[in-house]
Amino acid sequence: MRWRRKGAGDRGSATVWSVMAMTALGLVFGCVLAMGQAVVVRHRAGGAADLAALAAADHWMEGGKVACAHAARVAAAQETRLVRCAVYGEVSDVTAAAGSAPLSTEVRARAGPAGPVAPGVPRGPAGHVGSSG
Question: What are the beta bridge partners of residue 129?
Answer without folding.
Answer: 123
